Amino acid sequence: MTAQIISGKELRKEILDEVKLGVAEMKKKTGRVPGLVTILVGESPASQSYVRLKIKTALECGFHEIQDTLPANISEAELLARIEGYNNDPAIHGILVQLPVPKHIDEKKIIKAIDPDKDVDAFHPVNVGRLMIGGDAVRFLPCTPAGIQQMLLRSGTEICGAEVVVVGRSNIVGKPIAVMLAQKGEGANATVTLVHTATRDLPGHCRRADILIVAAGVPGLVKPEWIKPGATVIDVGVNRVGINSKTGKAILRGDVDFEKAKEIAGKITPVPGGVGPMTIAMLMKNTLLSAQLTLGITGDQVLDDADEKK
Ligand code: NAD
Fold first, then answer.
1. Tell me, which fold does domain 132-277 have in CATH?
2. What is the pLDDT along the chain (310 residues), one digit of tens a residue?
3. Distance 203 CA to ligand 1 centre (A)
């Protein structure tokens, strides 16, 4: 039987509609809207296109959006001063520095300079620590892992007690999603295995997974025979494997052989149109949440009860 396709495009719309409602309610109660600044240093075409999409989505959601485009030769000190300005600006609830920054700027220093309470990407060490603790400590969930968790929840996938295998241990996807799904609480409570380049029996681990999350950046890494029949497969990989001669656009493939895998899995995400569209939606959700918390309007969080002993 062919798997149910979990569409990131459809879920993105659902989440953005919720964000728009939240913005309208905030405006009614306080006369204010969430503010997001997107800082782009230099002219990398890929970064420009990501930032354009973020700005467009923020404006659609009714946010106050500041687009701060800076020359590639801006000094680290100038960029830090700029960030400090936004840290102190009460109209700004989310600060986003598009990565990577030019080589003469220390990326870690930039991430650390952002006020953790405005760090809607959740890359600041304070937010990484909050995620590790879980429960009430969490302010923002990192956007791609948060998108994955929402795909599981909104597709009705049973997470509690499930065997989850995460392929890849990056700081932005593999490690945080593994921590999030292992926490005690709603949308979590899974038994998680994190596998990587030094794992001895990758196929054997994958075959055990009720939920298989693949974020390796290797096209077609996961073979169809590695998938447990009926499993939910979340393919995070976005790999450019060629150029479409008619459209001139990049041909994108995931880390899973989608066509064959969908005949075995119970649920699966496509590439493109899967996890990708969720990431920006979760960024908007985080910005709304930041404004709600700052203005004292109740927001929601997925990870509850993490400090309950069990
Ligand atoms: P990364 O390169 O930082 O990490 C990849 C991880 O995969 C590493 O931990 C490595 O150990 C592991 N890995 C690589 N090859 C492996 C192999 N053969 N066997 C086992 N483990 C292996 O990558 P990342 O930033 O986590 O991104 C992973 C993929 O997800 C990329 O294709 C990236 O483009 C994509 N991505 C998509 C989104 C999105 O929004 N859709 C967001 C982030 C990343």
1. Rossmann fold (3.40.50)
2. 799 999 999 999 999 999 999 999 999 999 999 999 999 999 999 999 999 999 999 999 999 999 999 999 999 999 999 999 999 999 999 999 999 999 999 999 999 999 999 999 999 999 999 999 999 999 999 999 999 999 999 999 999 999 999 999 999 999 999 999 999 999 999 999 999 999 999 999 999 999 999 999 999 999 999 999 999 999 999 999 999 999 999 999 999 999 999 999 999 999 999 999 999 999 999 999 999 999 998 755 434 444 445 5
3. 17
Among candidate residues 214, 294, 209, 298, the one with its CA nearest the CA of residue 253: 214
54 noted as active-site residue: yes
Got the DSSP string for 138-177? -S---HHHHHHHHHHHHTT---TT-EEEEE---TTTHHHH
Specify the domain boundaries for CATH 3.40.50.10860 within the chain: 31-114
Q: Cβ distance 299 to 292 under 8 Å? A: yes
Q: In the chain, where does the domain assigned CATH 3.40.50.720 lie?
A: 132-277
31-114: in CATH 3.40.50.10860: yes
Alpha carbon of 216 to ligand 1 centroid (Å): 3
Which DSSP state fits 102? P
The residue annotated as part of the active site, out of 68, 119, 121, 210, is 121
* Ligand 1 centroid, distance to 168 Cα (angstroms): 6
Q: Is the CB of 218 under 6 A from ligand 1?
A: yes
Query: Ligand 1 pocket, 217 CB below 6 A?
Result: yes
